[in-house]
Structure prediction request, 88 residues.
Amino acid sequence: MPTPVSGSVCGTNPQTLSITLSGGATSATISSDGGGSLSVANISASGDVIYTPSATDFVNTITVTITTNNTTDGAGILCKAVSPRRQV
Prediction:
């Protein structure tokens, strides 16, 4: 599972998150708790997600959450869905 990381954004400059799925995950949904916009809401295998903050995000910490569809470890052992987060 990726380690959550933080980044800083100046104003409404976009923040790019490069995502590569592994461990049996084949798709993921992306969401945020901010007022800005995400370039995509779903990915398959890998891709870039761009979060563009809104003016209301300026003084807040925004969390982007990536939730995978992985429910087994590849050997049939059930696993909990993974949701790493990145704060911007």
About this structure: The chain has one domain: 5-87.
